[in-house]
Amino acid sequence: MKILISNVRAVLLDEADTVLSGAFVAVEDGKIASVGTQRPAGPFDREIDGKDNVLMPGFVNAHTHVPMTAMRGYGDGNNLQDWLEKFIFPTEDRWDDRAVACCADLGLAEMIASGVTCIADMYMRTHVVAQRVAESGISANLSCGGVLFSDAFDPETDHDCVALRELTRDWHGYNGGQILVDASIHGEYTSRAEMWEWVTAYAKEHGLGMHVHISETRAEHEACKARHGGLTPIQTLNQYGVWDVRAIAAHCVWTTPEDWAIMAEKGVSAIHNPMSNLKLGSGIAPVSAMAKAGVNVALGTDGVSSNNCTDLFGDLKLAAILQNGANCDPLALLPAQALRMATENGGKALGRKTGRIQAGYDADLILVDFQALNLTPCHDVISNLVYAAHGSNVVMNMARGKVIYQNGEFFTIDIDRVKREVRDYALPLLFQN
Ligand SMILES: [Zn+2]
Predict the structure, then answer these.
(1) How far is the CA of 308 from the centre of ligand 1 (A)?
(2) Where do the domains of the chain lie, and which CATH numbers do they carry?
(3) Residue 276 Cα, ligand 1 centroid: separation in angstroms?
(4) How far apart are the CA of 73 and the centre of ligand 1, in A?
(5) CA atoms of 33 and 351, how far apart (whole Å)
(6) How far is the CA of 211 from the centre of ligand 1 (A)?
(7) Pairing state between β 139-143 and 116-122
(8) Of 9, 63, 146, which is closest to residue 349 (Cα–Cα)?
(9) CA 231 to ligand 1 centroid distance, Å
(10) Short-list 387, 383, 421, CA closest to 19
(11) What are the residues whose beta carbon lies below 5 Å from ligand 1 (ion)?
């Protein structure tokens, strides 16, 4: 399938932050084939007129828990411990595969409609999430989030080790890399050294990345130091080689300059979740300082249960203005830097060639309606995207070269069926008394 997007303003996100007017972007076999201001030689199977729209790389939502869409707003207004123990954990005990499937679909649809083309997700029943992602057409790095609370650990029988082995066997590399499996440690505070060693060895042996929650709250960060002779979560896991593979560390709110030196050296990406961190009172991750220290910083929404939506435009704006406010410096995080966090930096974090409009990159592209009131007038396209756009301004989502959403219509998800299934099956199952 050869598609031409014509007559469009294209935000390339190259080194020069080029916004190319009158651009033609050709797509073939899931990749961007050419970018320029001259119409490329055809023929094309389909042409999409980009007049009045801006074309940009699709968003990479680099830290999500997609089935948790079911818990939007549930238990809000409680402290973190009560929220988890009285609301979230009891609900999670009730999941079955059918409920995970429709709630994952709902979350994926919300993301697709607001411009996400790639995610890094950590959740249980991951094989079901994998099936839903595969159908949806977006790309994903999927992980199971290993926990270990008991003293006995046998990787042959441990639930999370079995799940990781089966997920890797069934899904790693699916459809030319649409799905990649990452090994995972849910967090330092929810597991122990035996698991870190096994998971790390498994990731090295199978060429997997690593997905870990790091220093989200001060209490978690300080408790780790108390347990491990003053070492932070980044430093503790570093002793076990966890960062020797491509790794993403979600949150990093309380990480230190010493942590950043390790992250920069080992290539550990920090995933910033500003909406979740503020809502749960976790704090403000020092991401402009981390970026200056050489850490690759990408952006995520976290689960809908703690955001409460997956419109990455919201997190993008918040990330940008939060650093300026926290540092009393309007130049602390420039709009183009913030936009790169939501696109190419996420691609790097996930080991993918996505997040730029450049030949050879994955054809993960979205069109944004620049005739919308909130984007009129436009003195600076990138400023408008970062500070003024909403997910509802997205009029087309192309993932891996395939148009999966256009003008409110989903082409890979039966949205009416999904809404019915969530309402009639999942919600009664999860929230019964
Ligand atoms: Zn999380």
Answers:
(1) 13
(2) 2-57+356-410 (2.30.40.10), 59-349 (3.20.20.140)
(3) 9
(4) 16
(5) 20
(6) 10
(7) parallel
(8) 63
(9) 22
(10) 383
(11) 302
pLDDT tens-digit profile, the chain (433 residues): 999 999 999 999 999 999 999 999 999 999 999 999 999 998 999 999 999 999 999 999 999 999 999 999 999 998 888 898 999 999 999 999 999 999 999 999 999 999 999 999 999 999 999 999 999 999 999 999 989 998 889 999 999 999 999 999 999 999 999 999 999 999 999 999 999 999 999 999 999 999 999 999 999 999 999 999 999 999 999 999 999 999 999 999 999 999 999 999 999 999 999 999 999 999 999 999 999 999 999 999 999 999 999 999 999 999 999 999 999 999 999 999 999 999 999 999 999 999 999 999 999 999 999 999 999 999 999 999 999 999 999 999 999 999 999 999 999 999 999 999 999 999 999 998 6
Distance 374 CA to ligand 1 centre (A): 31
Angle between helices 97-113 and 126-136 (to 10 degrees): 40
How many angstroms separate the CA atoms of 85 and 78, rounded? Answer: 11
Task: Tell me which amino acid residue 158 is.
Answer: D
CA distances from 207 to 183, 213, 246, 247, 296 (A): 9, 20, 9, 12, 20
CA of 98 to the centre of ligand 1 (A): 22
Token readout for 278 is: 């503020």
Tell the residue number behind the tokens 């997910």, with chain if given. 391
Tokens of 75: 């238990």
3-state secondary structure of 245: coil
The answer to whether residues 252 and 290 touch, using CB atoms and an 8 Å cutoff, is yes
Ligand 1 centroid–CA 126 distance in Å is: 15
Task: Judge if pTM exceeds 0.85.
Answer: yes
**Residue the block writes with tokens 């899904």:** 171
The beta-strand segments (E) located in 12-112 are 19-28, 31-36, 46-49, 53-57, 59-64
Q: How many CB atoms lie within 10 A of CB 257?
A: 10
Angle, helix 193-206 to helix 159-171, in steps of 10 degrees? 10
Measured in Å, residue 77 CA sits from the centre of ligand 1 at 19
Residue 310 CA to ligand 1 center (angstroms) comes to 13
